[in-house]
Amino acid sequence: MSNTTAPAPTEAASAMADPKIRIRGLSKRFTVPGGHVVTAVDSFDLDVPQGQFLTIVGPSGCGKTTLLRMLAGLESASEGTIEVAGGTAGRPENSMVFQGDSIFPWMSVWDNAAYGLTVRGAPRSEIKDTVGHYLDATGLTKFADAYPHQLSGGMRQRVSIARAFANDPEILLMDEPFSALDEQNKTLLQAELLRIWDETRKTVVFITHSVDEAVTLSDRIMVMSAQPGRAKAFIDVPFARPRDVLQLRHEQEYGEIVYGIWSQLKEEVEKAKQQADARVAPKKRGLFRR
Amino acid sequence: MTNVAEAAVTSTGAVAARQVKQRRTLSKGALRAISILSPIVLLVAWDALSRGGVLDDRFFPAPTLIFQALWTEAASGELWAQSQHSLTRLLLGFLVGAVPAVIIGVAMGLNKVVNAAVRPIISALYPVPKSAVLPLFLLFFGLGEDTIWYFVAMGVFFPVVINTYTGVSNVSAIFYDVAENFGAKRFTVFRTVALPGAMPNVITGLELGAGMGLIMLAIAEMMGGQGNGWGFMVWNSFQLFTIESMYAYLLVFALVGLLLALIVGFVGHKLTPWITRH
Q: Are A171 and A21 in contact (CB under 8 A)?
């Protein structure tokens, strides 16, 4: 186990020579109703090398979504810097696969998948080829003209994945994209995601609650501490690619890694629960209280 | 074994389902029949009672006489002449009211400053009975055609602006996040998120606005001194005591209202193809 667990996260962060994503001293503080200042993310450092599939696991409320939203540019940082190494000119820095239903109900599957390219005015032929390719890869070609309400939850999330990949960004961000799906659909989509990702091997930062999902998908897993969010441990996942999502679970090492992560996570989950219990406000009296 | 068991389950399930469905369709059909019959029964009873002298036929002329009066108006060209005046006012008033209402509603929904500035004004003006403002409009704009456009426009404006604002502010925040993440600039966010997201509410507003516009038209034509239009004909027939023709123009209002609702509904359906309607 010791070979998969890096004990000092700061060392791991500073050791990287030429990372794709470089985060230094990143903090995020919120003022919550009542005037308290909550530190969601606290002086956070992270390096992600080019082409790595990094997954962040952590207890609820540890600030991992805040971290991802700062990476996505949807949330400003209180302190610190985020650098994403650029490549091709005109390529967007990041694209996010959001948690839950995020595809536009008023656009067809095709228009949803083409959104990023259309917004930045890509040539018509490029849109046609790229969107066609990713709809094909996600098995949605038949449903190109359908509206989201005609699709199942799993298919809607496929559209979201196709939309992010078709935008061809420097890095991909995924915020618990499969959390709303049932176990079987989740496994199917994990396999599809890996297959599509294998084509381009873009740098990915993926957030999940599921340790199994993290081990299945990632090259490296970061366990985040309870609030304020810090990197508690890094675990390398040595399985070769391309991976077989099912075969993987048969490996002896799989169980060991899962166990290793859980033993890191357990303490933080308990801490997070205590924090949450302490936060529960006294019930307000409603007009129609029971 | 399993096949038999499954078959048994399916067949009983199907039987049960069919029974439930049958009962439902039966009552639905009966309800529809009642809905169709009740106005017919009312009209027939009205006709009989009016002709039989039970109802005072000065106030309640027989429906057949009303239809006859409408036919006379149509045949003489009078109906079309009046309709030209009224339809023009209704259409122009609708445009003058609805277009700014959509723009202001969207601006309120997207911009907190605009909302903070405009909302109290709308909230204060909305409860004022629109009919009571006609004298003010006559004072401001005089006795011209345009007074009626503005008056109709005012009726259309409020339901459209309020529903548009509600629609825009109810668009889920995640869609704005998506637009921002995918690099959409202000106008693109408006075009691809705010407007389509609010469209179902905008259409509801237009439906209500069309109905309100018709009310305003009737008031303005009765009181505005133009001397023509459906509203004037209702009022004029009342004063001349040609009650059949008064009823005939009330019928015109009813038919136009129905037609407007159908048109807005149809256009709305075309504008929101992603929404399933029954």
A: yes
